[in-house]
């Protein structure tokens, strides 16, 4: 049996302080010609959802062409400021060791389930040399859907097609730091390992229904055990 591990990015693997909100404000002005007054809540949401809600907060209709233009400009904005990711951010403690240890296990395929657009996720992980541990071809990203739960099935389909091995819901583990990650994993049919490295504490993540909750990723053996136990249940 092989296990598909789908990592969240922000506050699970890396933290980049303040940059996203700054770039959203710049891109909003570029695309709409207006000043950003209200940015939608970003926690646990896809970039497609954040852009859609932000436009609606300003009474702007989120047409598909406008969403595409905004997404392209957002990716370009992050690319233009890619050097700042490394200066203003950091990998979460234990993230590199956990990714590396799981990458060494032949029964594990690692990818991402993230609200970030694919090039933004790549930029954030590349800034800390974490990108080589995950397979970007089989993940699900911020423009794949408005909601995260359907993205779990999409990632599973992509992994099955690439590896020629059917990844069932029981073989899929989502790792994230918010109740939104827990909900996405469960509604997508996956098991969930939650880490209290973001705004949600361990009690909140347990209440959300995560199968396993870790304080952080520092204990590599505990992370591996959590992933394998979650997939075996």
Explain what the structure shows.
With 233 residues, the protein is of the alpha/beta class. It folds into 2 domains: 3-16 and 90-232, Rossmann fold (3-Layer(aba) Sandwich), CATH 3.40.50.1000; 19-85. It is built from 10 helices and 7 strands. The protein has helices at 19-32, 47-57, 64-80, 82-88, 95-103, 118-126, 149-163, 179-187, 202-208, 220-232, and strands at residues 3-7, 14-16, 89-91, 108-112, 172-176, 191-195, 212-214. The strands form 2 sheets. It has a 5-stranded parallel beta sheet with strand order 4-1-5-6-7, with helices on both faces. It has a two-stranded antiparallel sheet with strand order 2-3. Helix 1 (19-32) packs across helix 3 (64-80) and helix 5 packs across helix 10 (220-232). The longest helix is centred in the N-terminal third of the chain and has 17 residues, at 64-80. The model has no long low-confidence stretch (mean pLDDT 93).
Itemize the secondary structure elements and their pairings.
Blueprint: E1 3-7, E2 14-16, H1 19-32, H2 47-57, H3 64-80, H4 82-88, E3 89-91, H5 95-103, E4 108-112, H6 118-126, H7 149-163, E5 172-176, H8 179-187, E6 191-195, H9 202-208, E7 212-214, H10 220-232
Parallel strand pairs: 1-4, 1-5, 5-6, 6-7
Antiparallel strand pairs: 2-3
Helix pairs in contact: 1-3, 5-10, 7-8
């Amino acid at each position: 049996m092989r296990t598909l591990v789908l990592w969240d990015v922000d506050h699970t693997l890396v933290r980049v302080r303040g940059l996203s909100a700054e770039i959203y404000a710049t891109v909003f002005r570029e695309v709409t010609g207006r000043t950003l007054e209200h940015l939608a809540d970003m926690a646990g949401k896809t970039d497609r959802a954040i852009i859609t809600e932000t436009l609606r907060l300003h009474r702007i209709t989120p047409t598909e062409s406008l969403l595409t233009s905004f997404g392209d400009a957002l990716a370009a904005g992050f690319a233009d400021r890619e050097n700042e990711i490394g200066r203003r951010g950091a990998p979460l403690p234990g993230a590199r060791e956990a990714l590396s240890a799981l990458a060494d296990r032949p029964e594990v395929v690692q990818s991402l389930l993230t609200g970030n657009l694919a090039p933004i996720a790549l930029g954030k992980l590349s800034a800390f040399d974490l990108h080589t541990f995950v397979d970007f071809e089989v993940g699900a990203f911020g423009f794949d859907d408005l909601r995260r739960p359907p993205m779990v099935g999409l990632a599973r389909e992509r992994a099955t097609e690439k590896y020629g091995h059917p990844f069932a819901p029981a073989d899929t583990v989502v790792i994230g730091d918010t109740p939104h990650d827990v909900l996405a994993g469960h509604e997508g049919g996956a098991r969930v390992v939650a880490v209290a490295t973001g705004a949600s504490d361990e009690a909140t993540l347990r209440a959300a229904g995560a199968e396993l909750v870790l304080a952080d990723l520092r204990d590599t053996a505990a992370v591996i055990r959590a992933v394998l136990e979650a997939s075996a249940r």
